[in-house]
Design goal:
By secondary structure, this protein is of the alpha/beta class. Helices cover 26% and strands 20% of the residues. The strands form three sheets. Strands 1-13-14-12-11-8-9-10-7 form a nine-stranded mixed β-sheet, sandwiched between helices. Strands 4-5-6 form a three-stranded antiparallel β-sheet, with no helix packed on it. Pfam families: Methyltransf_11.
Length: 337
């Protein structure tokens, strides 16, 4: 299992947004690092060109979504409030507001609610969402995280075999890495997903302010559950999850979903905290982890082998990682047929 230690200084990068339903349902794969052209149409019955590929799917039955546009002319840069997508099979509808699509299973419910783990609810808080890029994320450097720009460079090394395709930035938060991926022009489409409505609003605002992003329309913002990803099976080239794996209530369910949506040869890259080293000598650490998970919903990883086993059990191969203190960046690949 390859292993390296992080070193070197940080170097910059950055990123964007925009949303058109007709565009969401069609993605052009760029074979080279060239400016991405995206088809925009306000007509529901527009015939998608052969070189475009539909990848958004119903999170209930995983069938394709069709556009139901309630307004005759939709903004090419921002989603029209009231725009809908509908599953072709189960007829479930999903709506868009000013900032993002809601592609969760419970989208549109008015009476139903369910309690969520603290690790999820914390990031739905408006104050935490506001502070995330204004000091919160910067504190991760104390745990060995190299910083967003350096982490982006490291992730790009793992992703170099899927350049020109599409990428999901899972649990994107305020869009820190979504913007970096978009600005790099390495990907035809960037799908910024988060369960927190407030994080997506912050992501939207940061994208609007991003002056260095040429084509904001390549970024799609969507509210989604990491355990029910709204994508067709085998339709995604890459999935990135920055400082998120430990926040997922069930990492195995999440990684299994990531494996489902990745195409053969697709790449999964993630960063998280790992508590090994001196932490191995803490008495009853495994028992303590169970209690922490029970009350917070957060997951503590205690070894590289645990993460490798997680990826392998979900059908991913070629596990490799980079370590620095409590920080770990891991990568695994969907096997080719």
């Amino acid at each position: 299992m390859p292993r390296t230690i992080v070193s070197g200084r940080l170097s910059p990068a950055a990123l964007p947004i925009g949303l058109s339903v007709s565009r969401l349902l069609s993605v052009k794969y760029a074979a080279q690092r060239l400016p991405v052209s995206v088809l925009i149409s306000a007509r529901v019955d527009y015939v998608v060109e052969k070189e475009k590929k539909k990848i958004l799917a119903c999170p209930i039955c995983y069938n394709s979504l069709a556009a139901l546009i309630s307004q005759p002319h939709e903004s090419a840069e921002y989603p029209a409030s009231g725009t809908h997508l509908q599953c072709k099979y189960c007829k479930k509808s999903y709506s868009a507001n000013e900032t993002h699509l809601d592609l969760t299973v419970a989208s549109g419910t008015k009476q139903y609610t369910e309690p969520l783990p603290l690790s999820i609810e914390l990031y739905r808080n408006p104050l935490v969402s506001f502070l995330y890029e204004r000091g919160w994320r910067q504190n991760f450097m104390w745990g060995g995280f190299p910083g967003p720009e350096k982490e982006f460079e490291m992730a790009s090394e793992y992703l170099k075999h899927v350049l020109g395709g599409n990428i999901i930035d899972a649990s994107c938060g305020s869009g820190l890495f979504s913007r970096l991926f978009a600005k790099s022009e390495h990907f035809a489409m960037v799908y910024a997903l988060d369960y927190s409505e407030n994080m997506l609003r912050q992501c939207y605002e940061f994208l609007k302010q991003e002056a260095n992003l040429i084509d904001k329309k390549i970024v799609v913002l969507a509210r989604a559950d990491i355990a029910r990803l709204p994508f067709l099976s085998g339709s995604v080239d890459a999935v990135h999850a920055g400082a998120a794996l430990h926040c997922w209530p069930s990492p195995s369910s999440a990684v299994a979903e990531i494996s489902r949506v990745l195409r053969p040869g697709g790449v999964f890259v993630a960063t998280t905290f790992i508590y090994d080293g001196l932490f191995r000598f803490v008495p009853f650490l495994k028992e303590l982890r169970q209690e922490i998970m029970r009350y917070s919903g957060s997951h503590m990883f205690l070894s590289e082998r645990e993460l490798e086993d997680l990826c392998k059990s979900c059908g991913l191969v070629g596990f490799t990682c980079v370590r620095n203190g409590l920080f770990i960046m891991l990568s695994a690949t969907k096997p080719t047929r």
